[in-house]
Design brief:
The protein is mainly beta. The chain contains 2 helices and 38 strands. It is elongated and about 95 Å long. The N and C termini lie far apart (124 Å).
């Protein structure tokens, strides 16, 4: 009997112990934040600062998990620092105070969020007065050198020097205050933003002495004077070396290019323009075209368009035909390659005819050629021996390495043929009988 009583008592104790253990496992805990004097705000807190903090946290019942320090502008969270809190005690870190355009001095909100492993959360909020730094100066950094931008007024800065007509660079601030950082201003999506070191494309009427200015509140800057214009249409910047305009042009229309100081020395594509002195006249059929001014190669690249996209060959023979491949390119054959971005748009001359002229030794190689005619500015579809007949003694279309020694669809020189350096060769693809009955002719001029 005593044995049974003894076993019963052991069972009761065990049940009690397990019950206590279950209670501990399910206890929510009590995270406690002690944030008095946790943030170093003895100096004014500035946009662009990395604000240090030291926060004491504890939970007497359940292990802690994370401490999150969040910064809000109005109701939007703009910055966050997350710290793992394995034990009770002090935790240190920094939270970045973002620097944005057009944000006035005001009061931000700091929110502390402490969580234990049972997902119990304690929060505290603090008001944080923040103001814009009044930089003593800025620095304009370019490949030409660094230029000091002197303060001319609240948030206003200016560098005056002998600059080239176009100068690219970013702007940086000095470190202000004990918690400050360098602030960078650069160019993204055709606008100045903070946090970028991509060059800003400043420009003026001509090289010489002028001022570059910048406002650190609203990010207004100057000068952006040089406008490249084609027939009263201002070209849009693509990147540092390329600007484009998408315009309607009429066959025989005069084309006026203004703003390009050395345009008289640019290479002119005679498939698209005839030139008389400084005057250009448009040669292809009327339509919408994208004209890209390539300042690195100094030529106007012309591409036929349909709506907002470059054109492709249509079933009725309208649209565009593209050349992609080796051995040819404009304004030099060294610009060629199997890259659709380097595709040449043949000039649409009307009645289903598309033309491109090459000068041997300059825009096409003399000893060997290798390219394909495509329906689109992409890899497919293209013309092959089933859809393109070659009416020329100079070139052939590949039917396969095992048939005529040339990859199927590729244009190559006929056996024993070469091009004469300095001579112009006009390639014309005629689809007037149907896009599956195209004819290629090559004429030496």
């Amino acid at each position: 009997m005593k044995k049974y009583i003894y076993l019963f008592l052991i069972s009761v104790v065990a049940l009690g112990f397990n019950s206590c253990s279950d209670d501990d496992d399910n206890a929510p805990g009590n995270p406690v934040i002690n944030a008095n004097n946790s943030f170093n705000t003895s100096n004014n807190v500035l946009f662009g600062d990395s604000l240090p903090f030291k926060i004491n946290v504890s939970d007497s019942e359940v292990p802690l998990s994370t401490l999150k320090v969040r910064l809000y502008y109005s109701e939007e969270i703009v910055s966050e620092t997350v710290i793992r809190t394995k034990t009770n005690g002090d935790y240190s870190g920094k939270i970045f105070i973002p620097y944005y355009a057009n944000i006035p001095n005001g009061t931000a909100t700091l929110k502390l969020v402490l969580q234990n492993i049972h997902l119990t959360i304690t929060e505290q909020e603090f008001d944080l007065p923040v103001q814009r730094p009044d930089f003593p100066y800025l620095t304009f950094v370019s490949s030409e050198g660094e230029y000091k931008m002197n303060r001319t007024g609240l948030y206003e800065y200016e560098a005056k020097d002998n600059f080239p007509e176009k100068i690219n660079g970013y702007i940086k601030s000095p470190i202000v205050g004990s918690n400050g950082n360098e602030i960078f201003f650069g160019w993204e999506d055709n606008a100045i933003i903070q946090g970028s070191q991509t060059s800003i494309p400043f420009s003026y009427f001509s090289a010489g002495e002028y001022s570059i200015s910048f406002n650190t509140l609203n990010y207004e800057a100057a000068p952006f004077i040089v406008n490249y214009v084609i027939n009263d249409v201002t070209m849009i910047r693509i990147d540092e070396n390329n600007y484009k305009a998408e315009i309607g042009l009429t066959q025989g229309q005069d084309v006026e290019v203004t703003g390009i100081s050395d345009f008289s020395s640019w290479w002119i594509d005679e498939d698209f323009f005839s030139k008389s002195g400084a005057n250009l006249k448009f040669k292809p059929i009327s339509g919408k075209y994208r004209i890209t001014a390539d300042f690195s190669l100094k030529y106007l690249k012309v591409e036929a368009m349909q709506g907002s996209n470059v054109a492709g060959l249509q079933s009725d023979g309208s649209g565009a035909i593209w050349i992609i491949g080796d051995s040819q390119g404009k304004p030099a054959y060294s610009n060629s390659g199997w890259d659709p971005n380097k595709a040449i748009c043949m000039a649409p001359m009307g009645n289903g005819k598309y033309q491109t002229s090459f000068v041997a030794g300059k825009t096409i190689t003399s000893k060997a050629i290798n390219f394909v005619f495509f329906h689109v500015k992409d890899w497919s579809p293209s013309f092959g021996p089933e859809t393109l007949t070659v009416n020329s003694e100079l070139v052939i279309i590949g039917k396969g390495k095992d048939i005529n020694g040339v990859d199927k669809g590729n244009i190559a020189l006929a056996s024993g043929k070469t091009l004469t350096d300095g001579k112009t060769y006009v390639f014309v693809v005629d689809v007037s009988a149907g896009i599956d009955k195209a004819v290629l002719t090559v004429e030496e001029k």
